[in-house]
Amino acid sequence: MEGSPLRPIGYLEKYFIIRNQIKFYNNIEVGATYTVPRSLLKWSAENPLESVIHCALAETLNSQPILGVTIQDEQSPNPKWARLAEFDLREVVKFILEESPSTSVKWIEAGHHEPLDRIGELPLWRVVVALQKPAPTASESSPFSFSMAFFCHHAIADGLSAGAFHLTFLDALNHLIDHPSDILYKPIIEVPKLPLVPNLEMTTHLPVSYFSILKQFIKTYVYNPEDPLEWSGPPISATTPRPPVPNIRTFSLPHTAVNKIALRCREEQTTVTALVTILTARWLGTTYSTHKRFCCKLPFSLRKFSKHTQRDMGCYASDMGLYFSSETKTPRGYVPCYTTSPDTTMRRDVHLWEEARACKTDMDKRGSTVADQNVCFLRFLGDYAKFFLKTFGTKRQWAFEVSNIGVLDGGVTRGEENAERATFDRVTFSTSLFTCGSPYTVFLATAKNGYMTVSIGSETGIVGEEEVVGLLNSLERELMGLGG
């Protein structure tokens, strides 16, 4: 292990490291379905696809130094980053055959099961390359497709950063197309001795007001009554398998439908994230009708404050809690999600767009400043492991989570020839579950001029199979209705 100093671990990174160490969490995933010219595979006599993937990963590592680190003193209260001297790509890259890798999720679920073990020996990420089974017959001139999922420790990447991995990898593939003589089968790579990108706390002032400190103190130590109208699933159980692994269900919308939905959202002065959040809250309000209030966890990027670019890999996010009410008279501080049916005709549902605008307004307000965000309080947390472990037996904070990594440009240009370039037109996003997290998680990821994929993560025993399928079908039906 190379001993040259690396920057200190930040509070947010420490939060994720200790959360993994006590097995409350495992990894996050962003995948993409790539198309490359078949001629790219001719430049390696031995293991052509493996050679291309390995070379592109080595080039990616030169641009993303966080991919070369591991954790030192992981089990201590103060872990450190350490740079690996080298590692074998065959230990972190797996090739599999799937019936339909671009639409199947079983292989992605399996990736969430795989622990990020061998800390100190291997980097904090894994790649799974899925090829279609059986391999389709194709002419020498036809393009070649594969799906690739990037799984990583949350301490080295948030959702946008996992997307940045694919953007960097895509650049590396196109570099190899332009310079095929660079394709060499070299599975063991030396880690470049590059400095890490500064962490969030190094670039961003994270102020906390005295009022917020007092409010949090009262909530934690003095008085925090439970709202009987609020639903957030069963209490957090110490018997839940750790780390919890999601059951993932997914559907995709074609680019024509995505464009129509995005255009309608702009016309209605809202966003796709706000729309999906409201649709989910409405479904909860009708499905759990004995309750009327639901809290949503919404992760959001702080890059506009930290000045990190969309290509920087690391953790530069916080989360907000938005409160929704299905009551006919919406209480103060709540966004309305009232509907008489979970399956209304959304095109003519005026109230839907009013609610989506209200949701966006709340999101914009909460995300307009870095002050008093949840991430700002991490420096006061003290014993991180104790903080997690004392949640057993308590009420869950959120009913659902909606996380959107936005649009990734996979180089697809409609109506133009893409045959000589590497591209991707489909993206997936999912995470393993958090032991004290939400019963439902909804993930959104979109490839520019390609598909938008909606994934729902849930855990067996926390919510029922029938309910999860109901949410999936409801979101697909309503979004397809808007995009049709």
Would you give an account of this structure?
It contains twelve helices and 16 strands. By secondary structure, the protein is of the alpha/beta class. Strand 5, helix 3 and strand 6 form a beta-alpha-beta unit.
What brief labels describe this structure?
single chain; 484 residues; alpha/beta; Chloramphenicol Acetyltransferase; 2 domains; seven-stranded mixed sheet; five-stranded mixed sheet
How do the strands and helices of this protein lay out in sequence?
Layout: H1 11-21, E1 28-36, H2 48-63, E2 69-72, E3 80-83, E4 86-88, E5 93-98, H3 106-113, E6 125-132, E7 144-152, H4 159-178, E8 188-190, H5 200-203, H6 210-222, E9 247-253, H7 255-267, H8 272-287, E10 293-301, H9 303-306, E11 317-325, E12 335-336, H10 350-366, H11 384-389, E13 400-408, E14 423-431, E15 440-447, E16 452-458, H12 465-483
Parallel strand pairs: 5-6, 10-13, 11-12, 13-15
Antiparallel strand pairs: 1-7, 1-14, 2-3, 4-8, 6-7, 9-16, 10-11, 15-16
Helix pairs in contact: 2-4, 7-12, 8-10, 8-12
Q: What's the CATH superfamily of the largest domain, by name?
A: Nonribosomal peptide synthetase, condensation domain
CATH architectural grouping of the largest domain = 2-Layer Sandwich
Q: Count of helical segments?
A: 12
Query: Which strand order do you get reading across the main beta sheet?
Result: 9-16-15-13-10-11-12
Terminal CA distance: 55 Å
Main beta sheet: 7 strands, mixed
Shape, principal axes of CA atoms? globular
CATH class descriptor name of the largest domain: Alpha Beta
Radius of gyration: 23 Å
Helix content: 25-40%
Number of strands: 16
CATH-defined fold name of the largest domain: Chloramphenicol Acetyltransferase
